[in-house]
Design a protein that fits this description.
Length: 249
Amino acid sequence: MKKYLILLLLVANLGLGIQGFSAMTREEKISLEKQIDEAYDKNDNKKTISLVSRYVKEFPNNADYLNKLGVLYANENNYKEAEKWYLKAIENGNLTAISNLADNYSQLKDYEKAIKYYKEYEKVADNPRNYTWIAAAYENLEDYKNAREWYFKALKTEKDGFSENHLGLMADNEGNQKEALKWYQASAQKGYLWGYSNLATTYIELGDYETAEKWVIKGLDLAKKSKDSDDTAVKKEMQDTYDYIQKVK
């Protein structure tokens, strides 16, 4: 029963920006933008990439479309190509691209660069969730001292229990199960499903199957009410944990 590290996924700003010089007529530009919107609405990522690539060739200083092209390549898991377009978007003044580039470096497991750009983004955007992203990057570097500092900052505004769960994970990794249980319980009290799952797993490790069963049942009951597709993995994990308890107790 693994204790998963769930990384946050970023939502990009796909708005329109200022156009540079182009030989394209106004009608052609409007038509291309309409085609881009239609392809995007149909989730046709490859076609959208082709159309947006044409657009940025005509309008190479349009920061928002440069950022959008980066997002599209990231959706294809082509993070090196995404990096190129995010950098161009940043050069042209798109602030969202700073955050997207940081996330891109996290996907590439270049956490030091990720931290650099998350901190740059913090200077220009009032987004408390940024604390969590910085903390997660430090956690991936196993720099728990700095990770804790940023998770504690996130706790001041965060309501979902994510940071508490990760404070528990780090304590667990350091062999401090008592501290881990404290944070997992704080996470569960906010309704975070992985908090329940990790509580149950830790109690199993301690040989306390009765308490483990109690927490996993509570977690499964709460999970049944969730329609979030992102919760599929934790639901399966808790069900596996419950089934294991029934076999061994």
